[in-house]
Amino acid sequence: MSAQDRPLSPATRAAQALGRIDPRTGAIVPGIEPATTFARDAEYAARQSYIYARDGGPTVEHAEAVLADLDGAARAFAFASGMAAFVALMETLAAGDRVAAPQVMYHGALAWLKRLAAGRGIGLDLFDAAADGALEAALRPGETRMLWIETPTNPMWDVIDVAAAARAAHGAGAILAVDCTAAPPCTMQALSLGADVAFHSGTKYLGGHSDLTAGVLSLAQEGALADEIRRVRTLMGSVIAPFEAWLLVRGMRTLFLRYERASATALSIARRLEAHPAVERVRYPGLPTHPRHHVAAAQMTGGFGGMLSVELRGGFAAARAVVCATRVFVPATSLGGVESLIEHRRAIEGPDSLVPDNLLRLSVGIEDPEDLIADLEAALSGTA
Fold first, then answer.
1. 233 flagged as catalytic
2. Whole-angstrom Cα distance, residue 21 to residue 66?
């Protein structure tokens, strides 16, 4: 095999957006097609399957092709937000179906699951993601239709073994859907580990610049589930818009570099904070002290990401003081952008949250690591 014939790596394919050079102009940056409707040909047939923008279009299709390639998926669907994607997947459930999910997970998704359980006749079985055997115990063979997991979980960063979860789900007659927002395809291939659906909040690492909202469902197989998701997305009108799809492609071109930098810096910060007198606990899968570090190391092969949480010795008051004292870390909600964010998560989730009230969630960006460490140490100095 010659050097030119060797398969390109995922990082190269992402950086070149699958090599989409405009054949007319030679432009190396993909263009945007903003049209909402598409003229039929002289025989009144659809041109290239494009009819109306609620079904998608050329720019959306390009983004989905890059996403499917990254995830190793048979089909990827792009949505206007992460929650739009999550809701579309849950709309494939029928009354009487059951879902098993972690008791601590992204609070918006958990709130929607509780809404389904309260008003739609969908059973909900929550489990402790940190407890051995809890996931398996939550499954009801013949009744559980879907096992939904996050790994690492937000904001506790517990690690779930995707391959083991897939075996458990399939053994119970359920499908496995994995929220890969904190472990994007540059580090974890959920579908190759046995998942049926990989979910991403594209707003986060995939977009990577805090300037778009997007959601993704990548499916291991075409078939009835893919057909139903497409139908739900069209009926709900929740497809991503062309400009946001273009921004998503732009973000994915630098995903591997950004994630690598964020992972390296987050590990440095986690190591430094583990020894800080004001810190009670650091939650980061990249630390050998994490109870499932070995699982994370096996399935997150491209780094452990930029997300970590710290629990402070001074409780709620100390957490509030630190989150208000940083100058480089920005006090804002979200994650996966180029800028570093800090958040008092309990204040965001509200009084029903199971998150410790002394927990701060950090999203590490691509700034100079020493600037970030110095900023945190300065903010912590008044609480030690």
1. no
2. 14
- Which residue among the candidates 106, 205, 259, 284 is catalytic per the annotation? 106
Which of 88, 188, 189, 69 shows the shortest CA–CA distance to 146? 88
Q: How far is Cα 108 from Cα 87, in angstroms, rounded to an integer?
A: 10
State pLDDT tens for residues 182-223.
999 999 999 999 999 999 999 999 999 999 999 999 999 999
Catalytic residue among 71, 125, 179, 375: 179
Enter the tokens of residue 330: 């920005």
Active site (annotated) includes residue 106: yes
For residue 383, the model assigns a pLDDT of: 67
In angstroms, the Cα distances linking 259 to 62, 96, 289, 290 are 22, 40, 22, 20
b (16+ CB within 10 A) / e for 259-279: bbbbbbbbbbbbebbeebebb
Single out the catalytic residue among 204, 250, 258, 283.
204
CA distances in angstroms from 343 to 102, 142, 298, 354, listed in the order given: 21, 40, 29, 16
This prediction has a pTM of 0.95
Annotated active-site residue 114? The verdict is no
Question: Token pair 């870390």 is at which residue?
Answer: 329
CA nearest to 126, candidates 135, 384, 117:
135
Residue 308 near residue 262, CB atoms below 8 Å: no
Residue 221 to residue 123: CA distance in whole angstroms: 26
Could you say which of 13, 20, 54, 272 is catalytic? Answer: 54
